[in-house]
Amino acid sequence: MLTTAELLFMEEHLRGNQSLTRLIQMAGENCTDQQLRSLCQQMYSDHQRQNQVFSRFLQPNM
Amino acid sequence: MMMNQPRMTDRDYMQLLLNEHKHAANCLTKFALECASDQLRQQCETTLQETLRHHKLIWNAMNQRQWYQPRMASPVEISQAQNQFGHLTSGQMPQNYGQMPQTFGQPQTQSYGQTQSFGQSPQNYGPMTQNYV
What we know:
heterodimer, A: 62 residues, mainly alpha, B: 133 residues, 5 helices
């Protein structure tokens, strides 16, 4: 069960983090510097995992 | 007729990612502060730590490439701060201790009590990414 405040912040966090994940993916694909591409790949997987973890709080059994 | 859009550089991407991680850290702090659930608050704190770690990695990458070099405070500015707050180092209270500065406390106590800030910040979340993603 979530409070209304938690739900509001959860929705905004997931929305914002989805956008950020896409931006990181785009940066990883378009950066010319290999070190930066590698940094983006690492951050991309972290953000994907964050999205999965937070979205579990929306499940009825949480 | 198609216009050629200027290509985003590595530096542009890193600057965007730096800004977005700063913003995400701010939002996660507010999120954690509004959590009633201990489990959810813990998740916010864990994610905030990871966001700060990402921010530092981006910051380091930019700083190494001389894309992000914050201006250092001048000796004059430091001296002014020392004059203002030097008494805190010695543990002594200034002579006017106990007299609340007029600017201190007023905005915070009003907004904390009224919680007007709640609900406004989520609407602002992620405005920069919308232009680029």
